[in-house]
Amino acid sequence: MTAPLLTVRDLTISFGQTEVVHGVGFEIKPGEALALVGESGSGKSVTAASILRLLPPQAHVAGFISFEGTDLAASTEPSLRGIRGNRVGMIFQEPMSSLNPVHTVGRQVGEVLAVHQGLRPNAARVRVVELLRSVGIPDPERRLEDYPHQLSGGQRQRVMIAMALANDPALLIADEPTTALDVTVEAQILALLKAEQQRRNMAMLFITHDLGIVRRLADRVAVMTDGRIVETGPVADVFSRPQHEYTRHLLAAAP
Ligand code: ADP
Ligand code: MG
């Protein structure tokens, strides 16, 4: 048995008096893709954000979170900073909100390398071009001086993926990264993520409301509703023999 890369146990998240996540638990093995699926408002995003303590300060988080043997719940902010963007990459639904509109693409990707790898500008430039090429940005040398608004939505998401993968993370957390994209672009981005995940043998926590994406991308699935995970298992098992009433409802409602 391989030891889990990430273990979450008894995770509870509240905002003021309102508890929105009620004792959630799951594990991800190295190289494994786990999909967290559920309808809007079920608590997927706050669960993901709590792993690296990225929730706003008014959120109250309790529970056990261990990553690569480190107890994240007990970690200090400086050690969490070393894990974020380095051992764990993150991508979100709307890349425009994560990219700085007034800095060029080359500078932003370069900064990720400079912060975590201490590369000098020239070496960083070569790596930035390589990275942008690896995520399918055509003519990357010529895009370095572009600002985010000069790229298409799909290209912006590719830049975000390049930044998330720049430091070879052991885990990628992807929170609905294709929800804002057209279906054809979505298919390309999903194919890129799957290929990178397999090539790097990287684990992935993929958050989505789309069962088709779960089928395409994930090894295992955790079904979330109303702040609880009601069912977890290999995708083929859960889809062919759903055990929980809510999973049956979700499968019946899917196109
Ligand atoms: P999902 O990602 O599954 O759509 P979220 O994790 O974003 O759902 O939200 C789960 C619940 O937590 C929702 O009821 C949402 O309104 C609430 N919530 C999320 N962020 C905040 C916040 N900053 N303050 C108060 N409530 C929040
Ligand atoms: Mg969400």
TrEMBL record:
Localization, UniProt: Cell inner membrane
Top-rank taxon: Bacteria
Family per similarity comment: Belongs to the ABC transporter superfamily.
Lineage: Bacteria, Pseudomonadati, Pseudomonadota, Alphaproteobacteria, Hyphomicrobiales
Organism: Devosia albogilva
Domain ABC transporter: 6-251
Protein name: ABC transporter ATP-binding protein
